[in-house]
Design goal:
Helix content: 40-55%
CATH superfamily of the largest domain: Glycogen Phosphorylase B
Strand order of the largest sheet: 3-4-2-1-5-6-7-8
Strand content: 15-25%
Largest sheet: 8 strands, mixed
Order of helices and strands: EHEEEHEHEHHEHEHEHEHEHEHEHEHHH
Number of domains: 2
Length: 420
């Protein structure tokens, strides 16, 4: 197949959407498919272009057998509203233009959020008369309201209208979990146009025996029990809970436990400033870490925190952090309710706590620290019962099979908003 994939994020960015698209597309290329990814210059989360790249109108490179077309965007850090909207809209415009000039595909895929990328896919597929596959990794704009980035308003209602029109324009929708599938059905998407291809992990990259430890030495952690949160430190993560837990440790005079917040995002500077002002020495902030160093980091921590704010929408979420921690045989402390909690509990891969509950967080860590055998067993269970099930190699094969099953050519010449 000739696959055209529109994604705002791509390697060498290390966030979940960039990782997912990279791991899938490079495997499709290895299998003999011709894959073109239209993306932006790597710049997340700070809106600063990575070394070796420039924010040019157009540039091409080849990564893992994938033809990567990078387009100009209005750069913005992963915080605030107005500048990020300009970032989203600029990508939609330039990606649409690039998509019209890319080699003619057999199928067009666009991944959401943000859904302006999805709309770029709608336009490209319609004008090029190719089937359109929409990938949903977040329910947008509902998630914006859930993290209180925007209040319900006429603008949100307008975005919701666009959301439904986008779903109707898709020939097929791929989502990452059962929770999202149910949400989409509730919004009127026919179940037969939906399939699930979850997030996963590259088992070869996260092989424990290949890891190179570095975190303890660089941050003077010694032999303390270390719990790491690895990922975007954004509004949805709810990491105020770590500050609250650190206050409890300070009040108890404890120096045996450390939190490592690994990554960057809209909330990092504020959290780090507050921790510094309050003298919360049990928290280490590393800033953004190159993806290649993450396996080594996970290999030397004692537990991994996977946490989101307590809101009903996040009960549908399946964080990719679960898979990476499991691949490195680390026990998980999970502060996410719903489908994620069901997965971790059934696999006996970690301890589930109430989101935003600092007392339960410390209780879980104390339990793991006091029982190394339990921690080891949970980590092994995660590897055998989660990581092995969600290997990107198998997921890529499944995804490609669903693409090959699509009818060739555009099924209708009606305007995008009327399709479906």
């Amino acid at each position: 197949m000739r696959i055209l994939f529109l994604s705002h994020y791509f390697f060498p960015e290390g966030n979940a959407p960039a990782t997912r698209v990279y791991e899938l597309t490079r495997r499709w290329a290895e299998a003999g498919h011709e894959v073109t990814v239209v993306t932006s210059a790597p710049n997340v989360p700070n809106g600063v272009v990575y070394e070796g790249y420039r924010n040019r109108p157009f540039q091409r490179e080849r990564i893992g057998g994938v033809s990567v077309w990078r387009v100009w965007t209005f750069l913005a850090a992963n915080r605030g509203t107005a500048r990020r909207i300009l970032n989203f809209l600029s990508y939609a415009a330039t990606a649409t233009l690039a998509g019209l000039f890319a080699p003619k595909p057999d199928v067009v895929i666009a991944t959401s959020p943000q859904f302006f990328c999805g709309w770029a896919g709608v336009v490209v597929s319609f004008l090029r008369r190719r089937p359109f596959v929409l990938e949903i990794r977040d329910i947008w704009p509902e998630s914006i309201v859930a993290v209180e980035a925007m209040e319900p308003s006429r603008w949100i209602r307008a975005l919701e209208w666009l959301e439904l029109r986008m779903y109707a324009a898709a020939d097929h929708i791929v989502t990452v979990g059962e929770g999202y599938r149910r949400k989409l059905v509730e919004k009127g998407v026919p179940a037969e146009r939906l399939s699930i291809v979850p997030n996963g992990v590259d088992l070869a990259a996260f092989a424990p025996e290949r890891a190179t430890p570095w975190l303890r030495a660089e941050h003077d952690l010694g032999d303390r029990f270390v719990c790491a949160y690895v990922g975007t430190i954004g509004m949805g993560a709810g990491l105020e809970v770590v500050l609250s837990a650190a206050r409890r440790l300070r009040e108890a005079g404890r120096d045996d436990l450390r939190f490592a917040l690994v990554g960057d995002g809209a909330e990092r500077e504020d959290l780090e400033a507050r921790a510094r002002e309050e003298g919360l020495d049990s928290i280490v902030f590393t800033g953004r870490v190159d993806k290649a160093r993450i396996p080594g980091l996970l290999a030397e921590v004692d537990a991994c925190l996977v946490h989101l704010r307590r809101t009903p929408l996040f009960q549908t979420v399946m964080p990719s952090k679960i898979f990476e921690a499991s691949a490195q045989r680390r026990p998980i402390v999970l502060g996410v309710e719903g489908f994620a909690a069901e997965l971790v509990s059934e696999a006996e891969a970690g301890l589930c706590i109430e989101p935003e509950n600092d007392r339960q967080l410390l209780e879980a860590l104390d339990r793991l620290a006091a029982d190394p055998e339990l921690a080891s067993r949970l980590g092994d269970n995660g590897f055998e019962r989660i990581a092995r099930r969600f290997d990107f190699g198998e997921l890529a094969v499944r995804y490609a099979a669903s693409l090959e099953a699509l009818p060739s050519g555009a099924p209708t010449a009606r305007p995008p908003a009327e399709r479906g």
